[in-house]
Design goal:
Mean pLDDT: 91
Radius of gyration: 26 Å
Number of strands: 0
Number of helices: 20
Strand content: under 5%
Structural class: mainly alpha
Distance between the termini: 68 Å
Low-confidence stretches: none
Helix content: 55-70%
Largest sheet: none
Length: about 375
């Protein structure tokens, strides 16, 4: 005798426990076994074959809904599936939710078909099923392609176009799009200890303070997926701080401020290397005018600023104190009294630079 599974209904009820298993990329039989282990058969009195049949039926529904999930704004205009607004929100948010360990592996990769077809290594490294890795890759690519050329706020555009109810999720995708757009280098060995949260923190700072979203920017309607071009051009003017006159003045203020904050050995070490250290920090600033320098920002900060301090025994607190004093002393320079607009650029750069440095600092 042959059996045919038939489903007839109108209002759709979603089993979100099963939906989560589907999103995780598990096959129907494995999901049914997982539910059995969680005691579903005991609580419902069903047989395993009935559980498996129901699981397969739900998976067919999710596969049909996936076309709408890929373009969430269509949910409100379709009449095929009767789903209440709250359930729609939950379906969408869960579909676009991602694993930080997977996104960390995707950062720095081109969103190409070739890379999409070679996610086995990501799955193996992160212990996340391949199907889930592919879904997350596709979501990132879809969001990026949709908003990369749109003016205005990345976060708002993503939240609106993908009907996300979670601000945190929209911020996460905004950071991913921003980093993907600038092709930040994230794969070098010296960056391997950094998590996605580390990069996201820095990306959010850059979007807030260095992009067209910044309060100091006059053109908020432009794309904040890009860095503020006017600001980048102004950063080139900071090169004047490497002139001997201003370098010596800056050094005097910094070293005097740090006399009581650093032990003698570290104070002497900084005094001997101050010129090179200051020029490095400033060169990173005016170098942001070039896309290659932007791309290598994280690697350069660690290699040229953080590691030299760590190699001489500086602690996180030592570095925090120095960078704050370095910024504050810069504001006192005579050149900023004659060029107050340059002082604004200095603060705008240093506030974000300091926070990024401290976030990237790992012992």
């Amino acid at each position: 005798m042959s059996y045919v599974d038939v489903f007839v209904g109108n209002y759709i009820v979603i089993d979100f426990e099963l939906y989560d298993l589907w999103l995780n990329g598990l096959p129907a039989h494995e999901c049914a076994v997982t539910l059995q282990q969680r005691g579903v058969l005991q609580s419902t009195g069903a047989r395993f074959d009935e559980l498996l049949s129901d699981t397969k039926d739900s998976f067919r529904l999710y596969a049909s809904l996936e076309q709408l999930l890929k373009c969430p704004t269509k949910f409100g205009n379709q009449s095929v599936y009767q789903i209440d607004p709250e359930t729609q929100k939950t379906l969408i948010d869960k579909y676009y939710k991602s694993d930080d360990v997977v996104i960390r592996e995707l950062l720095g990769r081109k969103l190409s078909t070739r890379n999409r077809n070679n996610l086995d290594d990501v799955s193996e490294k992160t212990k996340v099923p391949l199907r889930s890795c592919c879904r997350q890759f596709d979501n990132v690519k879809r969001v990026f392609k949709t908003v990369e050329e749109m003016p205005g706020s990345l976060e708002k555009n993503i939240k609106t176009l993908f009907c996300l109810s979670s601000d945190k999720l929209a911020k996460k995708y905004a950071a991913i799009v921003f980093m993907t757009n600038h092709r930040f280098e994230t794969t070098k060995k010296r960056l391997s200890h950094l998590t996605f949260d580390d990069f996201m923190y820095c990306a959010e700072l850059m979007i807030t303070n260095w992009s067209y979203s910044a309060a100091e920017c006059d053109n908020h309607e432009d794309m904040d997926v890009d860095l503020d071009r006017s600001f980048l051009q102004d950063l080139r003017e900071l090169k004047i701080l490497t002139d001997k006159q201003h370098l010596d003045e800056h050094k005097m203020y910094v070293m005097n401020s740090l006399k009581t904050s650093l032990i003698k050995k570290k104070h002497s070490s900084l005094e001997d290397n101050y010129k090179a250290t200051s020029k490095t920090i400033i060169s990173l600033a005016y170098g942001l005018n070039h896309s290659k320098e932007v791309r290598n920002f994280f690697s350069d900060v660690i290699e040229e600023v953080i590691e030299p301090f760590m190699n001489t025994g500086w602690t996180y607190e030592d570095m925090k104190t120095f960078l704050q004093m370095y910024k504050d002393a810069g504001v006192r320079l005579s050149v900023f009294r004659t060029l107050p607009s340059l002082g604004i650029v200095w603060e705008r750069y240093m506030n974000t630079f300091i926070n990024c440095c401290l976030k990237l600092y790992h012992t």
